[in-house]
Amino acid sequence: MTGTPRFRSMAVEADTRIIGLDTHRVFAEAVALEDGAYRCLGRVEVTLDHLETFAATPHPTDRVVVEATGNATAALEIPAAKVG
């Protein structure tokens, strides 16, 4: 699937939190949009252990968006398994 971006339209409820991951080679910068305000969640190392730990933090109703370059596949698949 290299080079083919996947886009999915999201209908977002007013109380839904959106988690954004800006993915780099060795880390992802995480932010949350909740109640109209952005909050920095910090850096997440792009390793299996760190991504699984991070993936345990979102709620099932959260939505995760990923900036897709580099290690985006790993950073997307692990958290995506935990949220809608």
Descriptive report:
The longest helix is centred in the last third of the chain and has 9 residues, at 72-80. A four-stranded mixed beta sheet has the order 3-2-1-4, covered by helices on one side. It is an alpha+beta fold. It has one domain. The mean pLDDT is 77. The protein has helices spanning 48-55, 72-80; strands spanning 18-23, 27-34, 37-45, 63-67. α1 runs parallel beside α2 (72-80). It is globular and about 30 Å long. The two termini are 22 Å apart. β2 and β3 form a beta hairpin.
Kindly summarize this structure in a few lines:
With 84 residues, this protein is α+β, with helices and mostly antiparallel strands.
Write the layout of secondary structure elements.
Elements: E1 18-23, E2 27-34, E3 37-45, H1 48-55, E4 63-67, H2 72-80
Helix pairs in contact: 1-2
Strand order of the largest sheet: 3-2-1-4
Topology order in helix (H) and strand (E) letters: EEEHEH
Please give the alpha-carbon distance between the first and last residues.
22 Å
Gross morphology: globular
- Count of domains: 1
Structural class: alpha+beta
Percent helix among the residues? 10-25%
Which key phrases capture this entry?
alpha+beta, four-stranded mixed sheet
